[in-house]
Design brief:
The complex is a heterodimer of chains A (257) and B (238). Chain A is mostly helical and 257 residues long. Chain A has a single domain, classed as Orthogonal Bundle (ABC transporter involved in vitamin B12 uptake, BtuC). In chain B, the strands form 2 sheets. In chain B, strands 5-6-7-3-8-9 form a 6-stranded mixed beta sheet, with helices on both faces. In chain B, helix 2 packs parallel to helix 5 and helix 3 packs across helix 5. The C terminus of chain B is likely disordered. The longest helix of chain B is centred in the C-terminal third of the chain and has 16 residues. Chain B has a domain of 68 residues. The chains are: A mainly alpha (257), B alpha/beta (238).
Amino acid sequence: MMIQVPPVSVLALSGSMAVAAGLVGAFALMRRMTLAGDALSHVALPGIGVAILIGINPLAGALVALLGGALLIWALERRTRVATEAIIGVVFSAALAVGALLATGEQLIDALFGAPGTLSPWELGAGLVGAATVIAFMILARDRLVLLFLSSDVARTAGIDVQRLSLFYLLAFALTVALGLRYLGALLMGSLIIIPAATARQLARNMSQMLGWSVGLAVFATVLGAWIAESTGHETGPLIVIVAASCFVVVTAVRRR
Amino acid sequence: MILPGNALEVEHLSVRLGDVEVLRDLSFSVPEGSSLAVIGPNGSGKTILFRALIDAVSHDGTVRWAPGARIGYVPQRLDLERNLPVTGDDLLRARARLAAAPPSDIERVLSRVGLTREILRKAIGTLSGGQFQRLLMGLALLGDPTVLLLDEPTAGIDEPGQERVTETVRRLQNDGVTVLMISHDLSVVVRFATNVLCLTRDHTCFGVPRQVLTPELLEQVYGEPVALYVHDDPGSTR
């Protein structure tokens, strides 16, 4: 039996997912991993495909694939930074192709672009715990992440475990993608992480403002996109991304004047 | 065990990157409170040496720091994109909080590196090369280091900026900080270094500047004949 989750809980989940996306995105820009981050979100697709094949929750399959993808990026970057972007591009595009073969028809569309559907209490609970974990990590690790992304050597001499912090950040990124899959899908979730942060960069004058704007814009895009979807009967994910991208275009145009 | 009075001892250090042996069988020591200049042509492994000293690249051989040594590292190149809204304040505060240092330490460090509070509000991308270099020194000083590693601190900076950076280094030396500095600038090397470590493709050498900096070595390092005149006043070396 499916228990109905009250709408306010759904709002809390999508809101906290957006907060996590805003925080993770601001640091993704610092880390110059906008491309890698977007590609990483695609790796969810084969996870969803395999999960459907073996009959488990698709989001669980996506989470496992995403965490595996984060580990892969981490392992590659330990070897060489230059080749990483190319390898990530190849591996994760291939993942998208494999995923497209495994999932077909409507399943594929849902996995790519998101399908809010009915939320089970279990999914709600796991989602809220996941979002709270990412948000807490980003707030607690803020100073260490600033130094890490300034220079890993400076961070190392400041006593930071560079490898571990790097891994934790990538896992937080992967977890954030997993949180947004239901709303935005594997193809669009990377955009909710990157676009509000890229808009925030143009508005902010310091790190706190950057984080504030990035979170605010991600939440705004998520809530407004979901509301327009609800009112017009269109898909949620594309509308969220369109709202976020519109903010980016408006801010860029106004700043250029 | 490290010998008393030494800040750093390096024995038989070798670093290999892929198929290339960047550093081979390097041994030297750095007494506490002294300064070591590392010179060599581009690609001779100077930055790799620094990164091996802080254990950021895997290496063979031994690197021993004095017990309780705190290292401040001032890199030449940054991983960070400079057009981000990250201010001097963001960096210094982050480092101060990690070191559990009171906010007053930021003021103290700014004056040690010759910067004003104005720098705190500016985005790092808008700073001049010299200001940014001194901000990075300030960042390193917030950890109250006993040893400072400076990777080409005057490279790409205009002359007044270079003067201010070298003046800052001189003050730190007077405060008893052990300084290891990669530099292409011979006048800086001769004025500030107790010892020179040279890395060339064929060999390495180590010793006091007047003995080590022979015309033959300088030609290898700079790729052309270089004459070095050392006057009695160390401030007027060319």
